[in-house]
Design a protein that fits this description.
There is one protein chain. The chain has three helices and nine strands.
Length: 199
């Protein structure tokens, strides 16, 4: 059974994660379970806070798109991003590389059916540890860079709505408030809020 994805209104989503210190079979199993939950929900990234754990750990699985190519340099070597997918990142730290910010519509598995334009830098460098605890440095751009920024925000207790401009947020404010109310009502009734079934 896939892990339950936390919903907006649950406090864990705004908690900063603790560093990963154990790189063992439990972490590998968690990565696999998170990947399955993410794929079940049609996502491309998932952070530990989104499955109820305040840990600095996330996974990403960004597909190739012929119209939006992604460039990658892992530990100084250029390679196709498809060779990296899916990725598990422990204790990731993002550094912005010189590039333009651009707006792009983002969604979030903890905000079903809610989307909005967010401005983020095009190019980043992320240092992280893999499932064996080995450190890496990845320079990337495009959707992969955006996805990593989104997930690392989660690990710092920052939500994508926190990055929206006021005018953009105003357009979805009603939906966000309704989602939070449903989540809190579920918690009060003793149920665990979850993503509604897709139609």
């Amino acid at each position: 059974m896939p892990l339950r994805i936390t919903q907006y209104g649950e406090a864990i989503l705004q908690q900063k994660g603790e560093d990963v210190i154990s790189f063992d079979i439990n972490l590998s199993n968690l990565a696999q379970e998170m990947l399955e939950a993410m794929q079940e929900a049609d996502g491309i990234g998932l952070a530990a806070q989104q499955i109820g754990q305040a840990t600095r750990f996330c996974i990403v699985d960004v597909p190739d798109h012929p119209d939006y190519p992604i460039s990658c340099r892992l530990d100084g070597k250029s390679l196709s991003p498809s060779l990296l997918m899916p990725m598990a990142l422990a204790n990731p730290v993002v550094e912005f590389l010189p590039s333009e910010e651009y707006f792009y519509e983002e969604g979030c598995l903890s905000f079903p059916e809610i989307r909005g334009d967010i401005a983020r830098p095009e190019c980043i460098r992320v240092t992280y540890q893999d499932l064996d605890g080995v450190s890496h440095q990845l320079d990337c751009d495009g959707l992969l860079a955006r996805c990593i920024q989104h997930e690392v925000d989660h690990l710092n207790g920052i939500l994508f709505i926190d990055r929206m401009e006021k005018k953009e947020f105003a357009e979805i404010k009603g939906e966000v408030k309704a989602l939070k109310k449903r989540t809190l009502d579920s918690i009060k009734s003793g149920k665990k809020p979850s993503i509604p079934p897709r139609e």
